[in-house]
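Exercise 7 asks you to align residues with tokens for two separate proteins.
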Amino acid sequence: MLKVLDSAVPVACWSCAVAHNDATLFCPHCSKIQPPPGGDYFSVFGLVPQLDLDLGMLEHQFHKLSRKLHPDRFARAHEKEKQWSLADTALLNDAYRTLKDPIRRTEYLLKLHGAEIGEEHAGKDRKDQKDPSRVPADLLEEAFDLNMQLEEMRMAKKMGDTDPDLQLSLQQAKKKFDGLLDDVDRDLRAQWKVWDAGCENARQESQKRMVGLLDRRRYIGNLVRDVTETLGA
């Protein structure tokens, strides 16, 4: 488990004993592989923790480190180095998948800063959050109507019936909710810039906004998923 934004802790290389950053996969002095690091995912790639990430640099670093961790390079290495190469590779892949995806990256960095994000936290009272409800207030009525239509469609399909009007209504609802997802993503990207450039107070306010946006996105995404599955069943 990577530690929370604690990538500047010096540790001694097991091979040459020279101190180095504990987030590195290889010793910068002797180039020997190191045990799985203790820093955050950003530090694994040598990147500054931020939301508006340079994806080109992320990909470059990923492929560079992947080549260095290739099993063929450790065919004659000590057993512990072989094990570390496997563990480091698994960590590298997980870090890359997390940081490459804009939503996972946002959730990850906010969690590093103490934000409560995810289904298990949705609907909980959050300090200083005005609307902690899992269901966005402006979508309550539409979500209720949509769920009723989904149930009607499921029952109709079980009976072997088709309802073109109901199907069209669900397709239109999906199109609308897809648009709402685009709106949320646009608002999130705007908050990235506030977060990356802001002072501590600005970041705290931005974090609250992004947590709310992520809750909203999760809920709308679930509705889109349900409509897609029901129409495709």
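Second protein for Exercise 7:
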Amino acid sequence: MTAALEIKGLQAWYGESHVLHGVDMVVQPGEVVTLLGRNGAGRTTTLRAIMGLTGARKGSIEVNGRETIGMPTHRIAHLGIGYCPEERGIFASLSCEENLMLPPELKGVGQGMSVEEIYAMFPNLAERRHSQGTRLSGGEQQMLAVARILRTGARLLLLDEISEGLAPVIVQALARMITTLRAKGYTIVMVEQNFRFAAPLADRFYVMEHGRIVEKFGASELEAKMPVLTELLGV
């Protein structure tokens, strides 16, 4: 089976700063994989490098068997990748529904979710469809940021700290969303600081430190790895 995402020896820079030092990672179709690590470990940079949003990149990043090193960001996105950055990118001057409809559907990657399907998954957004972006709560903005990707047809989702700073009830709703998307066959790579949120959702884990992968293990190994995670992450 061709991996949904395969990274080999990835190095990345921001200007003169060498941030990633030989990252290797494999994500199979339909998997939920979580990148763990302390702030500054290189997790967000890894997602940005996948999308071609860092400076120079070296190594290999294959998406469904296609090499993307050297591709511009818009072409990478058209391979069926959706990136939800930590800052969410909601346009304050647009309504919830206008924000939802803003990105175009990706050609050649299959049909995205309909607006009706999205509102069924996120009832809060249906209720707030005519509200301006600035009037949405942090949780509603996060739901909208993810929903916008689902409408495009992307099947590989890169989610950066989607639970950060949100009320427990919203975090629970996002966990249900991840479970639903996994059941629908989406492939998900999450960067998460909230270990309690990520632990029951992921099939596999990678731990980063100083721009390198220092641990990798499956969900079945999680309990045995807790002493290591406590040392590395303080969980």
